[in-house]
């Protein structure tokens, strides 16, 4: 029973224009059978009038060409500069009426989102850098500890091998005499 109901509903929708006015009113005209929908829909979805209006609102510019002109030298949108460049290109294309207003608005909105995400991106990069610096510091401290341990064990070996070198009296005795020898009297 329910499949039958949904079929009848969808038939009514398909035979009528899908255009909805800004006030939310659905167009009551029947769809134009000669209109080939560009959005990949199997059947025409607009009446002759709205199909014409849609055609007029979409400029006849090759999408690839438009994309190349919009993107230009931009590789990614990871900097405010690249997003700004893109917006500038977008304004140029809109001024020349090479891009549909709705597409331009959508792209401007996406650009805004990209700009909003930049501070978070920067924080992320900073956090990664900070973590790398921390890791470097930690590794350096570890190397330092290892080196001092090596030196200490080396010193212990030497002191056990020849006690006279580590004898504090010998060092103290040698110190002042060296000082006296260096000073002209
Ligand atoms: Zn219509």
What's the arrangement of secondary structure elements?
Elements: H1 2-15, H2 48-57, H3 63-71, H4 80-95, H5 101-161, H6 163-166, H7 168-182
Helix pairs in contact: 3-4, 4-5
The structure holds zinc ion (ZN).
Structural commentary:
By secondary structure, this protein is mostly helical. The chain folds into two domains: 17-58, no CATH class; 59-153, no CATH class. The chain is 70% helix and 0% strand. It has helices at residues 2-15, 48-57, 63-71, 80-95, 101-161, 163-166, 168-182. Mean pLDDT is 80; it is low at 1-12 and 177-182. The structure holds zinc ion. The site of zinc ion has 8 residues, from helix 2.
Task: Label this structure with key terms.
185 residues; 70% helix; 2 domains; disordered N terminus; mainly alpha; rod-shaped; single chain
Alpha-carbon distance between the two ends: 123 Å
Cofactors, ions and other ligands in the entry: zinc ion
Mean pLDDT: 80
- Largest sheet properties: none
Q: What Rg is obtained from the alpha carbons, in whole angstroms?
A: 39 Å
The low-pLDDT segments are 1-12, 177-182
The ordered H/E elements are HHHHHHH
The residue fraction in helices comes out at 55-70%
Shape: rod-shaped
Kindly summarize this structure in a few lines.
By secondary structure, this protein is mostly helical. The chain is 70% helix and 0% strand.
